[in-house]
Amino acid sequence: MKIIEEYNGKKLPHPIYSWADEIEEEAFNQAVNIVRMPNLYKHLAIMPDVHSGYGMPIGGVAAFVNVIIPYAVGVDIGCGMIARRLNIKKEDLPKEILGMFINRVKKKIPLGFEHHKKPRHWDKIDEFDDIYILRIQKKEALHQLGTLGGGNHFIEVDYDQEGYVWIMIHSGSRHVGKETADYYHRLAVEFVEKYYKKTLSDKNLSFFYLDSKEGQEYFKAMNLCLDFAYENRYQLMEDVLDILHTFVYFEIIDEVHIHHNFASVERHFDREVIVHRKGAVLADKGVRGIIPGSMGTKSYITKGKGNPLSFKSSSHGAGRVMSRHKAMKTLTIQEVEEAMKGVVHLPFKSKRQLDEAPQAYKDIDEVIKQEEDLINIEYILKPMAVVKG
């Protein structure tokens, strides 16, 4: 970890603690904007998978006193991971079965912008009635449960160092979370203009005071989106395992389920603060996490060390080195197929599907190496099959 205290020869108001060997220019400029924000507490922590996002870089962890920032939580509120370990070994799933399995997943699980035709059940859906932006999405939300989404969301079959099979899923709060994030960001812009009356370095860092009416409403809406995202992943996993059960009998022997886009009220350095983890995972001592690589590369099940300097956090993945547009523009289908060699996957039919290619991401082993003081490794997962959103 290195400490950055100056920018262009001038001392920063707060230091940047970086676990990343390198920070791209746009992400670094966003980090500088964060440490100039009002009510930032102590420092900004940057994880080794850092890359640029809206306002705060993805892979950023920031604690504020009585300030909450919608875009420092992330657009996909509650985006996260679920992984289940099964009591079967990799040899129980030959390539022929994996091929049939992923084809059935594609037919049964709504991917990308697709939703279920019939609404699903969720015990907490009536709590949406209390908040305008959730209330108007209530009906459609039930069609989004148990859907994967697009972009970097995926369903993966892996095996660990003992040969046991894992099913791992990356998904979030779908359109519900995005609409909620964008709605409260717009309100935050108005809130800053009305109550703060100073110019922010970036409007994407517009905020609420947590003890304000608006701040409390956003915090409640965000937590409902976290619950929705959690339920979405749970239902997805149940559906995926139901499909797998048609090919092989198994039992579940372990589970890890986490968010990596959220804010929570916590105590750090003897003060109550609002910790924003945007593309970062809670890594308190003994807390389990999931750090996936890109499709076709290794992933890690971890246990946190509770390092106070990172606000007890770790990275959430490998982190991009190439934008989606650049990946689609510069990579070829042949190059990506070669990188995915040995992993069963649906065929790439156009360059538009190359946005999540392994070449677009950092080396996951290097990312893990840079945060050895934040996590212990419990399992190393290698991919057998993947379905991209």
Mean pLDDT: 95
Distance between the termini: 34 Å
**Alpha plus pi helix count:** 10
Major β-sheet annotation: 8 strands, mixed
CATH topology: tRNA-splicing ligase RtcB
Radius of gyration: 21 Å
Percent range of helical residues: 25-40%
CATH architecture: Alpha-Beta Complex
Order of helices and strands: EEHEEEHEHHHEEHEHEEEEEEEHHEHE
Number of domains: 1
Q: How many strands?
A: 18
CATH homologous superfamily title = tRNA-splicing ligase RtcB
CATH class wording: Alpha Beta
Strand content: 25-35%
The low-confidence parts are none
- The chain-level structural class is alpha+beta
Molecular shape: globular
Entry summary:
Helices cover 30% and strands 30% of the residues. By secondary structure, it is an alpha+beta fold.
Description:
- This protein has 389 residues and is of the alpha+beta class.
- It has one domain: tRNA-splicing ligase RtcB (Alpha-Beta Complex).
- Helix content is 30%, strand content 30%.
- The chain contains ten helices and 18 strands.
- The chain has helices at residues 25-35, 70-73, 95-108, 132-135, 138-144, 174-196, 213-245, 324-330, 333-339, 364-370, and strands at residues 2-7, 10-18, 40-51, 58-64, 67-68, 80-89, 154-159, 164-171, 208-209, 252-259, 261-268, 271-278, 280-282, 288-291, 299-304, 313-315, 344-345, 375-388.
- The strands form four sheets. Strands 6, 7, 8, 10, 14, 15, 17 and 18 form an eight-stranded mixed sheet that branches. The chain has a six-stranded mixed sheet with strand order 1-2-3-4-12-11, sandwiched between helices. Strands 5-9 form a two-stranded antiparallel ribbon.
- The longest helix has 33 residues, at 213-245.
- It is globular.
- The model has no long low-confidence stretch (mean pLDDT 95).
